[in-house]
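Checked the freezer inventory, then went back to the computational side. Two predictions to log before the end of the day. The first one is the construct we discussed on Monday; recording sequence and tokens without edits.
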Amino acid sequence: MLQHGALLERLLAGSFICQITDEDGFRHLSNEQTQQDINHYLRPLNRRLVCNDDNSVYFLAYHELNKTAREHLSSQFTLTAQSLLPLLEWLQLVQETLGRDSALTAGDTIKLQEFVLRTEDNQSLRQRLNQLAADRFFNSQSDALDNQVKLIFRRLKEHGYLLQPHTDRQYYIVTGKIDHLIDVIRFIRDEEHLPVEDTPMQDELI
């Protein structure tokens, strides 16, 4: 398992591996023999390698839902739920601002300046962005639109939803973690009946 050591460390630390964040690692994880080897190693740790329905991102799940696993998942779910609404609003805002017909998915590119310019020209979008930036998940203290957008995108990069290939160029690539997020939103809407409102834009999004 030595050849997969670095990948295992990242997965056990909670990383999501996709073609955008780690093309080589993603290719290795797409190999059936590698999956079997990793799952064999992870079994004593009560972990297993899983991917989403679109096979665009790999991450770890529990093999058996024992008491420890349930407690950890409950804590993790609470954190996810707290960030869910601002993330959902951001997804809708990007889709509406950039005139996209479908939700963001891994590999999509967002140009920061284009997003800022289109938001500036629309009072409704600007107001929604102000409210989003002030949410505790982003916690912006600035009233300047440009600063608010930069903070939001920086926070999303820190949480693994976006990748910035060049620090001196203001464009971002969506990672596979967004695909996982949308799967979580669908699960909550369909199975848990939690308060994720059913608006036309959200129906289009998820």
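The second is the one RB wanted added to the comparison set:
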Amino acid sequence: METTRLPGPVVAPVRAVPKLSSVQQRIQVARLAQAEPSLGSAYAQALARWMGDPVLRLAGVPIVTECYRNPARQEELYAQGRTKPGPIVTYKRGGESTHNRWPSRALDVALLLADGEVSWSGLLLSKFARLMKAADARVHWGGDFPGEFKDRPHFEV
């Protein structure tokens, strides 16, 4: 059997590493400033470990999507899937969530992908959760909540 080889070296495609713009970086700093210091520190440590891993870094950049939220915002989210369209995202009413305290004892995380899209992949968030819990044993991950409702983007102390 004869094979044909194309000339030139075989080069694997290069995957882009997602990067935050300067505006996105400022937003991240502002959101983290809302967090309980131990939670912010755990996030920073987990983020550094994530970005230091060449495989994880290519999967996406963890970003804080929400930290402190006022009770009115909490009520908006509580209405989703009940009196407003969309899936249920919380079982806590305004004033009941760890997001509603100052400094916030909770933050929500997603992953910014290289194409600019945002992902809430349960698999990727579970990997980030391991890093968060390794950074501070007081961190609880919403993916470990008992019962049917798993709040995978959610981390709290």
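For RB: The longest strand covers residues 106-112. The chain is about 35% helix and 15% strand. Let me know if you want it refolded.
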